[in-house]
Write a structure and sequence with these properties.
The protein has 3 helices and 22 strands. The chain is mostly beta strands and about 300 residues long. It has 2 domains: about 25-200, Cyclophilin (Beta Barrel); about 205-305, no CATH class. The strands form 4 sheets. Strands 3-13-1-2-10-8-9-5-4 form a 9-stranded antiparallel β-sheet. A hairpin with an 8-residue loop joins β11 (about 170) and β12.
Length: about 300
């Protein structure tokens, strides 16, 4: 394999496997935890109010450092509400933006993410979300239906299941147990809690290859063979004497849909071929060819174009 000599690039791609077939296409959010990272694809068009509400918390960094404050094995784990101040051993809620209109459209099946709300009030969701650990279709008819607005992509359920397998212990009176990491006794530390950090990774809709001159960024959906189907964002880092682009690892994630004129990456040669590259909405270049010239830094150099 070509990438045996490029361990960083190879390991990044191998972590991103194909996701099960799903009809949604929308914004992708990267979720980091102590047990690993996973990606959530939002249903932007199906549940626009809920997806935009969730993204507002992500984009403002309000979810960063929040803890998983509820774990019911086989059912759900829940977050998006509390942060922990280790110095004073106190939990405090994040600032919320107010309640939103319920948008139930999609069943609460395993691997979907939905909004939590107050019993008896269908329109009481604000910041708290939960991931369905099992097929919880009974939630579809409870309290107006719990709005599913996204789903865990690819092999991300391995990370979700690892969090769900942690010991669940009572931390706050009157609340369900929290999942805890390596906690036996004594003061509770931040390292004992499962914390989330979130950022937008990209989108799963749009043309297969686009260059934006105003930002110097190129976004493609690529067939990487045995490494899977990926969304990748490149940054233009050099124009003279050669055009070079570099992968932004924070903007790379798995996709599960093939598209027409999809770029192809050849593992054996290191060549990336882009059949059609769009600029300002139009096909500006055809059969654009890049070579991987620095596997450690994820740099590609333009080889030629028709």
């Amino acid at each position: 394999m070509f990438f045996r000599k490029q361990p960083l690039f190879y390991s990044l791609l191998c972590l991103l496997v194909l996701a099960p077939t799903f009809s949604w296409a929308g914004t992708v959010v990267r979720v980091n935890s102590q047990l690993g990272e996973f990606f959530i694809e939002l249903s932007d068009d199906t549940t626009p109010i809920t997806a935009n509400n969730f993204l507002s918390y992500v984009n403002e960094g309000l979810y960063n450092g929040t803890v998983i404050h509820r774990l019911v094995p086989g059912f759900v784990f829940q977050g998006g509400w509390l942060k922990y101040n280790e110095a004073i051993r106190t939990f405090a809620p994040i600032t919320t933006k107010g309640n939103i209109q319920n948008e139930f459209r999609v069943s609460n099946q395993r691997g979907t993410i939905a909004m939590a709300k107050v019993g008896g009030d269908p329109n009481s969701a604000n910041s708290q979300w939960f991931i369905n650990l099992g097929n919880n279709s009974f939630l579809d008819t409870d309290n107006g239906g719990f709005t599913v607005f996204g789903r865990v992509m690819g092999n991300g359920m391995q990370v979700v299941d690892a969090i769900a397998a942690l010991p669940a212990l009572y931390v706050l009176q009157g609340m369900d147990p929290f999942p805890l990491i390596n906690y036996v006794s004594g003061p509770l530390l931040n390292s004992h809690l499962v914390t989330m950090n979130m950022s937008v990774a990209g989108k799963t809709d749009g043309p297969p290859a686009v260059f934006k001159p105003e930002t110097g960024r190129m976004n493609i959906f690529v067939d990487a063979g045995a490494l899977g189907l990926l969304a990748v964002e490149f940054e233009l880092i050099s124009e003279v004497p050669e055009i070079k682009v570099k992968i932004d690892p924070a903007k790379m994630f798995p996709i599960d849909r093939r598209v027409d004129t999809m770029p192809v990456f050849d593992n054996a040669t290191g060549r990336l071929t882009i059949p059609e590259l769009r600029v300002n909405g139009e096909v500006a270049y055809r059969n654009v060819r890049f070579m991987l010239t620095d596997g450690e830094q994820l740099v590609f150099t333009l080889e030629g174009t028709d």
